[in-house]
Structures are given as C-alpha cells and as structure tokens.
C-alpha cells in the first residue's frame, strides 16, 4: 500500500476515523437529481470513499499535493478524470465545475480554511451547501451569534448568505498526525437572500472596518467612513460591532452609503 506523508506546509492532517467521514457525508442532504460535489483537499481519500458511495452525488476532488494526487489516481479509479491537481484558492470554479450548482465538502486544511469559505462566498449563487471540518475555534466563530467575543468578520459575512449549523466536535487522536487542537464540523445551507438590501461591496468594508477596532463603539470604529450627511446620534452608532446582527450591519451600511 502506498504511503503518503502528511505535509506540514500544506496543513495536512489525514483523517483515520471512518465514522467521522460517514457522519460528514450523511450531513449532505439527499439530492433529487444528481449534483456534483467538490471535495477540497482529499489527501488519501478518507472522505472521498464515502462520497463515492452516494449515488445522488458526482464526486470531484481538488488536491494541491502531487503525492496525494498520485495516490488518489491509483486507489480511486472511479473518480476518473475528476481529480484536479490544482490550488482551490486560485482557480475559476465556474470554469472547473460549469455554471450549475455544486456542493463543497472537505476536511479543510486549517491554514486556509477561512480563505476557502471566502472563496465559497464568491460563488455563493452556485454553491447551495457546504459541509466542512475546521479547527474547532474557527467553526464556532463561523456559527456564532451576536453578543459574544467569538462573533466576528467571518461570522457576519458568511451568515449574510448562509444558515450555519455546528454539527459535532472531532478529537485530535483521529488524525495522522494529530493536530494540537480539536476540530469542528459545520454545515452551511444557502439562505433565500439573493442580494443584500445595501451596497454589498460597502457592506463587506463596513464589517471589516468595524471589527478591526472591535473594542470601540461603531461611531469610533468607522470614523474614517463618516461623512456630513450621517446622523451619528442613531442608537446603532453607540453599539460595539459584536452586538450587531447581519440586518443591523446592513442598516449601518445604508447609513454610511454616500450614494444614498
């Protein structure tokens, strides 16, 4: 049996516990018509094995590690030409997967897991569903609600377009090599928001600017974005960023939008 050495610089931690893989695959809703699923960072195919058993999913995998690609081609012949030796963060997903809908899944490398989700946001109208494993703190942050220290930029930006469910925690000892932290599996389901009721580019800027100085009130954290027409006496300006819901960030964006 060919052995693939996990590579630290790629953030590889190969999953050994097949029951975790089963639970992750079961978290993907059953599809009426076959839908492509793109697994990011399959490594040696622990999750791939169970994705391939789903007759309602057409499994595609994208892997940057050349050694893992050789392994997958050897042991997962059923994938055929659906093994892509590419960098997920650098590719045009529409060119790779076409213009239709597809699911994203994976035991995501910790060092790029947040970037993977921001890439998903770029293709949110094509990606109705994501099931992924993250470092537990990151998974909790994504799923967190307003009013806590964990709630932040990624919480707001992802929750604007997806409903988030934290599914379960995974212990360190089910990986090779074991990471130094626990992992968490979350489920993202695209909500019904086709477009935010504000300037979406400005919304993103407002969220990032607010949380960059999260200990300050909104009035002070977005000071650089204020203009004469803004009434900063509005109650929202007295709040701190972690207290604002997605809807309130939309409201704030509209208050700061000079084009209104």
From TrEMBL:
S-adenosyl-L-methionine binds at residues 13, 15, 41, 63, 87, 107. Belongs to the class I-like SAM-binding methyltransferase superfamily. rRNA adenine N(6)-methyltransferase family. RsmA subfamily. Residues 20-192 form the Ribosomal RNA adenine methylase transferase N-terminal domain. Transmembrane segments: none annotated. One of its GO terms (molecular function) is 16S rRNA (adenine(1518)-N(6)/adenine(1519)-N(6))-dimethyltransferase activity. The keyword Cell inner membrane does not apply. One of its GO terms (cellular component) is cytosol. It catalyses: adenosine(1518)/adenosine(1519) in 16S rRNA + 4 S-adenosyl-L-methionine = N(6)-dimethyladenosine(1518)/N(6)-dimethyladenosine(1519) in 16S rRNA + 4 S-adenosyl-L-homocysteine + 4 H(+). It comes from Putridiphycobacter roseus. HAMAP family: 16SrRNA_methyltr_A. It is found in: Cytoplasm. This is Ribosomal RNA small subunit methyltransferase A. Keywords: Cytoplasm, Methyltransferase, RNA-binding, rRNA processing, S-adenosyl-L-methionine, Transferase. Its EC number is 2.1.1.182. Pfam families: RrnaAD. Specifically dimethylates two adjacent adenosines (A1518 and A1519) in the loop of a conserved hairpin near the 3'-end of 16S rRNA in the 30S particle. May play a critical role in biogenesis of 30S subunits. It comes from the Bacteria.
């Amino acid at each position: 049996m060919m052995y693939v050495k996990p590579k630290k610089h790629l953030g590889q931690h190969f999953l050994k516990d097949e029951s975790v893989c089963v639970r992750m695959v079961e978290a993907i809703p059953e599809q009426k018509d076959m839908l492509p699923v793109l697994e990011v960072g399959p490594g040696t195919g622990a999750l791939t094995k169970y994705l391939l058993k789903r007759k309602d999913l057409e499994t595609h995998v994208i892997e940057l590690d050349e050694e893992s690609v050789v392994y997958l081609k050897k042991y997962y012949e059923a994938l055929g030409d659906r093994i892509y030796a590419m960098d997920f963060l650098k590719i045009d997903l529409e060119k790779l997967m076409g213009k239709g809908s597809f699911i994203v899944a994976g035991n995501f490398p910790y060092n790029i897991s947040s970037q993977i989700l921001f890439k998903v946001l770029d293709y949110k109208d094509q990606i109705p569903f994501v099931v992924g494993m993250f470092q537990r703190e990151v998974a909790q942050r994504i799923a967190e609600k307003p009013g806590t220290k964990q709630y932040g930029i990624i919480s707001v930006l992802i929750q604007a377009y997806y409903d988030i469910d934290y599914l379960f925690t995974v212990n360190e000892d089910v990986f090779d090599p074991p990471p130094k932290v626990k992992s968490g599996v979350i489920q993202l389901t695209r909500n019904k928001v086709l477009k935010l009721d504000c300037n979406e580019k400005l919304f993103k800027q407002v969220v990032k600017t607010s949380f960059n100085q999260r200990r300050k009130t909104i009035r002070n954290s977005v000071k650089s974005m204020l203009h004469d027409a803004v009434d900063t006496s509005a109650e929202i300006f007295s709040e701190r960023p972690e207290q604002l819901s997605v809807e309130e960030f939309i409201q704030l964006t509209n208050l700061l939008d000079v084009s209104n």
